[in-house]
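Lab notebook, design round three. We kept the backbone fixed and only want residue identities now. Task for the bench partner: fill in a sequence for the structure below.
Input C-alpha cells:
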C-alpha cells in the first residue's frame, strides 16, 4: 500500500509540474492578430515561356509593394500554367523586406492560387521579424492590384 501511495504522489507532482510548464508556455504565446491590406504589382517580367501540350507555362519575376499590416516591398519568383480554358494556376515564393507590427526585417512566403485569388503562407522570417508566422488570402481587385486578409503572430 505504501508503494502505491508513493507512485501516486510522484505522478501527482509530475502532473502539476507539467501543467505549470504548459500553462506558462500558453500564457507567453503571442496573440494572433488580424492582417489586412493591399498588394500592388510594380513590375512583372516573364523570364521563360514554354508549351506543355495545350497549356502554356510561364516562369516570371514580379516586384510588388505591400501596404497595410505588412508594409514593404517583395520580389516574387513564380510559375503560372495557363490552360486552354483560360484558367491559370500559379505558385511561387516571395521575399519581403519591410515592417510588420512596428518591427522591421524580412520574411519569405509561399503562395499559390488561380485567377480568382489564393493563399500566402509565411514560412521563414529574420531580423526584427524573427518568429513571425501567418497566412493570408489574396484576391485581385484590378489588373495589378490585390487585397489580402488573414492573420499573423510572433513566437515568444
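Proposed sequence:
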Amino acid at each position: 500500500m505504501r508503494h502505491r501511495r508513493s507512485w501516486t504522489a510522484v505522478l501527482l507532482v509530475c502532473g502539476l509540474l507539467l501543467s505549470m510548464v504548459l500553462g506558462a508556455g500558453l500564457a507567453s504565446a503571442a496573440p494572433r492578430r488580424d492582417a489586412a491590406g493591399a498588394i500592388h504589382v510594380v513590375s512583372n517580367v516573364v523570364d521563360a515561356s514554354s508549351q506543355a501540350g495545350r497549356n502554356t507555362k510561364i516562369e516570371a519575376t514580379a516586384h510588388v509593394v505591400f501596404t497595410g499590416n505588412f508594409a514593404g516591398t517583395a520580389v516574387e519568383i513564380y510559375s503560372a500554367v495557363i490552360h486552354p480554358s483560360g484558367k491559370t494556376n500559379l505558385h511561387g515564393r516571395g521575399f519581403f523586406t519591410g515592417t510588420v507590427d512596428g518591427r522591421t526585417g524580412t520574411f519569405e512566403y509561399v503562395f499559390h492560387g488561380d485567377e480568382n485569388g489564393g493563399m500566402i503562407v509565411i514560412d521563414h522570417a529574420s531580423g526584427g521579424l524573427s518568429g513571425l508566422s501567418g497566412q493570408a488570402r489574396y484576391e485581385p481587385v484590378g489588373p495589378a492590384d490585390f487585397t489580402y486578409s488573414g492573420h499573423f503572430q510572433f513566437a515568444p
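Keep this in mind before ordering anything: The first helix runs from residue 2 to 28.
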